[in-house]
Amino acid sequence: MSSITIITIAALACVAAAADFQGQKLSWKEDDGLEVKIIRPISEDKCAIKSQAGDVVEQYYKLSDKDGKEIGSNFGKKPYTFTLGANQVIPGMDRAMTGMCIGEKRKVVIPGALGFGTSGRERDNIEADQVLYYTVQLVDLFRPVPGASWKEDDGLEIEVTHKIEDDKCKKSAAGDFIHQQYTLHLADGTFVDSSWSRNEPFKFKLGAKQVIAGMDRAMTGMCEGEKRKVVIPPALGYGTDGRPPQIPGNAYLHFDIELEKLVKKDEL
To answer: Which residue range or ranges hold the PPIase FKBP-type domain (predicted)?
Structure first.
């Protein structure tokens, strides 16, 4: 048997191994055009947890066009953080990052309808209905522990999506300095704004009227590290005038918030 034949057989063996890594499916294409290929699988014995909706994930990504030209990347930089399945990223990315092990890397092809749609994204020169070519890696994930929920007499709704045990709780009060992460949607799901997209928390003094009344109240009594879903009625938000052009009058504001860091007033 020639050396060329031996090399060919070895190469075919590698291909067969790549197609079936410990019984895992390594590539697939879904009916709506989403394509996923796992290029760095993680063995089952090293995969303690797989990503699912509600997890807070840390992601490395590289976005390219159809010719392989890089549009943007954060590999080697600070990971991008978002809550999976919470409409904080494009629909195709939410789905592509589901079911991943920490350390896993994938190549993903996202059709325009699951990407930036007919609007595109001007700041990155992404055209309407453009197909997106991503390489993504799950750096880490955090799975929340849900807590209580309640609705107050004036319509403020609060749901604790990740609670902190009492013996570990550093609790916020008026006069404290808040480092807050948030995502804001309207009642119909329209995205308005997010601190996560800037990788920079919003900072303010609690109870000092530096934010809308509903947010001052929603973040009072929170533990450092706690997460909440909050619905703020118009009277506690931007009222009848709204905040044009993104927030119309009489809008109910749907927030996902996290008290990332708390500096007590006696620590200032």
So the answer is: 54-142, 175-263
